[in-house]
Design brief:
five-stranded mixed β-sheet; alpha+beta; four-stranded antiparallel β-sheet; 1 helix
Length: 118
């Protein structure tokens, strides 16, 4: 490639692209969330502990019922295989969740754990 003279337009393009890349990396750095994934088996109790709190899940495969207990400080979102997203209440059970189940447990501080019941 032949050397070309650096024009004002080309310099502006380079500076704008650098600003966009720096902004993207900065945004991703500040919004990064180190989530962990825990895999649980159906028909057995699964205890998940993080941020000093424990959530217990039991998925009864034959009845397709998920039972769990949690503290008020935690939020649980369940995404079944069809992609339906629902927020689950305290000490609740849900019926007709498709298998496998992907659960996202989030604390008030923003820390989260992903629980997959296979």
């Amino acid at each position: 490639m032949a050397a070309q003279k650096l024009t004002k337009g080309r310099l502006a393009q380079i500076l704008i692209m650098m600003a966009v890349l720096i902004a993207a990396f900065t945004y991703r750095t500040f919004t990064y969330n180190d989530s962990k994934t825990i895999i649980c088996q159906p028909n057995s109790q699964c205890d998940v502990s993080f941020d000093g709190q424990t959530v217990t899940f039991i998925y009864q495969e034959s009845a397709k019922v998920l039972k769990f207990t949690k503290t008020e400080d935690l939020t649980i979102e369940a995404r079944n295989i069809e992609g339906t997203l629902t927020e689950l209440a305290k000490n609740s059970s849900t019926e007709s969740l498709a298998h496998p189940i992907d659960l996202q447990v989030t604390s008030r501080t923003g820390n989260s754990v992903s629980v997959v019941i296979e």
